[in-house]
Specification:
The structure holds 2 protein chains of 2 kinds. Chain A is mainly α. Helix content of chain A is about 50%, strand content about 10%. Chain A has 2 domains: about 100 residues, no CATH class; about 300 residues, Cytochrome-c3 Hydrogenase, chain B, CATH 1.10.645.10. Chain A contains 18 helices and 8 strands. The two termini of chain A are about 30 Å apart. Chain B contains 5 helices and 5 strands. The mean pLDDT of chain B is about 85. Chain B folds into 2 domains: about 35 residues, no CATH class; about 90 residues, Alpha-Beta Plaits. The chains are: A mainly alpha, B alpha+beta.
């Protein structure tokens, strides 16, 4: 077949059930062109924050931007508001924030690892990884009172303290992860099929990563040592002295492919365990809120004027919230959310070019996309000829078939 | 490695707690009747963690009607109303504006952040452990606090 076809994938996502459209131009089995259409998902959230809610109400709204990074978004927003109002956060609160943020990173990376295994057809591994993740979810539930919407952030600190008993429980949980880390490592990094399926697939070169402003584990897997926790430390990270993880730390080479992204994420789980253990050992005592009286805080926020930017390293990359306040008005004058997936969608183009349709799910999933976090329409190329429908099930089937084929040929 | 895990899991008890019954009953109503008469027992749920944020509880007598909770509620689930009991007891010809302010909470809108509990100066709100709140009618008696 000499003629090129354009295949629309989506608006449901190939890997996750969230809205995005991909248009692939294919010549036979090979992909020769890629378009990405993103939706306008959280304009409404920003509108509510600018018109209806006051700053305290907006914390809980920010939490609902994303179901998985629901620590990073309120953290970012609260950070921005604290910069406007010059509120000094107590040290103990900074440490608690760090611990909660790292717990979120562990759960998010394990969730991603499970999804990645599912995309290439290893459903047993998927269930196994998610069973391990359950333990960190229980810890989060114990610490904050809920599994998903944690509601622990407050402007000027956190709302819940970590008790002696809680610290003991977290330590136990972290020991569980350290004990089980070699199992995950064995499954993901030493399994020949996973290696065959992901090595040299969806390559993003260091040059492209820098050019397209990739963030988070995607950039780090391409050998860019870029991490907000290292470059602009917030909360307790400055005390810890964190170093961004690149795949050459593990095996001395950088390919920038899906396998490297697996390495980076798994090593980050280990790093998060280290950070949590360190933070628990060095946690200072003291209060957890800068201003305990919420009425006073509300008046302070109403008087504040200026602008602030919050930057937080979410599990998917750098998250930015821009907040502007005006004296005498309770809602934000402006509020802009830039979630990490926005940066990580453009690198899909070099990753997918020259690949096969069976690789689309794993390559797309390897950036850990969170479509609800996206916020602008990006049209790269609009030449379309013929279109035919390709469903998620078909792609998943293709993906599994390729894995089976590789397993047969490999043995 | 993976095969070893699979074998281990085959002989393990399932992790899932089969709440409220092990198998879905053919007829829910007759099942519930049998539960009431004590013939069958429900599988208990896993107890919620300490400081769990469940259905909100409201102590109407110590409330002073300051309305701070309504100001911080992110989902606007709290409405400020006049005290019904006071109106019935004290005014016969409808001088309702003199009645003290109280609140009315619509649990179907609640997002369980407990911000109102934190801000309340009289500590008349608190979160309970109750989490079975699903209902077909969003304005049913169970989901409006205080009840009618």
């Amino acid at each position: 077949m000499s003629e090129n076809y354009t295949i629309p994938i989506g608006p449901l996502h190939p890997a996750l059930h969230e809205p995005i459209t991909l248009k692939l131009e294919v010549s036979g089995e090979e992909i020769v062109g890629v378009d990405i259409f993103c939706s306008q998902v959280h304009r409404g959230i920003e509108w509510i924050g600018m018109n209806r809610n006051n700053a305290i109400q907006s914390i809980y709204l920010a939490e609902r931007v994303c179901g998985i990074c629901n620590i990073s978004h309120p953290f970012c927003m609260v950070d921005a508001v604290e910069k406007v109002t010059n509120i000094e956060v107590p040290e103990r609160a900074q440490y608690i924030r760090t611990i909660i943020a790292e717990l979120e990173r562990i759960h998010s990376h394990l969730l991603w690892a499970g999804v990645a295994a599912h995309e290439i057809g290893f459903d047993t591994v998927f269930h196994y990884t998610w069973a391990l993740r359950e333990s960190v979810m229980d810890l989060v539930e114990y610490l904050t009172g809920n599994r998903v919407t944690k509601a622990i952030f407050m402007i000027g600190g956190v709302r819940r303290d970590i008790s002696e008993e809680g610290a003991k429980k977290i330590k136990e949980g972290m020991r569980f992860y350290l004990e089980n880390f070699h199992k995950i490592e064995e499954i993901y990094l030493h399994d020949p099929t996973i290696r065959m399926r992901t090595r040299d697939v969806g390559i993003l070169t260091k040059k492209d990563a820098l050019k397209l402003c990739a963030v988070g584990p995607v950039a780090r897997a391409s050998g860019v040592p870029k991490d907000v926790r290292q470059d602009y430390p917030y909360a307790a990270y400055a005390d810890y002295g964190l170093k961004a993880i690149t795949p050459d730390m593990y095996n001395g080479e950088v390919h920038g492919d899906v396998f490297d992204r697996i390495i980076v994420r798994l090593l980050e789980v280990k790093q998060s365990v280290d950070i949590i253990n360190w933070a628990l050992d060095n946690m200072p005592s003291g209060s957890i809120l800068a201003e305990k009286n919420l009425v006073k805080l509300k008046i302070m926020l109403k008087k504040a004027e200026g602008e602030g930017v919050g930057r937080v390293e979410a599990p998917r990359g750098e998250d930015i919230h821009y907040v502007r306040l005006k004296a005498g008005e309770e809602p934000f004058l402006s509020w802009k959310i830039r979630a990490p997936t926005y940066n990580n969608v453009l690198p899909w183009i070099p990753m997918l070019l020259g690949g096969q349709i069976a690789d689309v799910p794993i390559v797309a999933a390897s950036t850990d996309p969170c479509m609800s976090c996206l916020n602008r329409v990006t049209v790269v190329d609009t030449n379309k000829k013929k279109e035919f429908e390709i469903t998620k099930e078909y792609m998943h089937e293709q993906s599994i078939k390729k894995t089976r084929r590789l397993m047969r040929n490999g043995q | 490695m993976m095969m070893h895990e699979v074998w281990k899991l085959l002989f393990k008890k399932p992790f899932t707690n089969k709440f409220p019954a092990k198998y879905a009953p053919k007829n829910v109503h007759s099942y519930l009747r049998r539960v009431k008469s004590g013939k069958v027992k429900l599988v208990p749920p896993i107890p919620p963690p300490p400081n769990f944020r469940g259905k909100i509880q409201y102590d109407i007598d110590s409330c002073v009607g300051c309305g701070l909770c309504a100001q911080v509620c992110p989902s606007k689930a709290i409405e400020i109303v006049r005290d019904k009991k006071w109106i019935i007891m004290h005014c016969k010809e409808g001088a309702t504006l003199a009645a003290p302010l109280k609140i009315k909470i619509y649990v179907s809108r609640c997002v369980f952040c407990a911000q109102c509990v934190d801000v309340c100066p009289r500590k008349c709100l608190h979160m309970s452990d109750e989490f079975l709140l699903a209902n077909e009618d969003k304005l049913s008696r169970d989901l409006i606090i205080p009840g009618p």
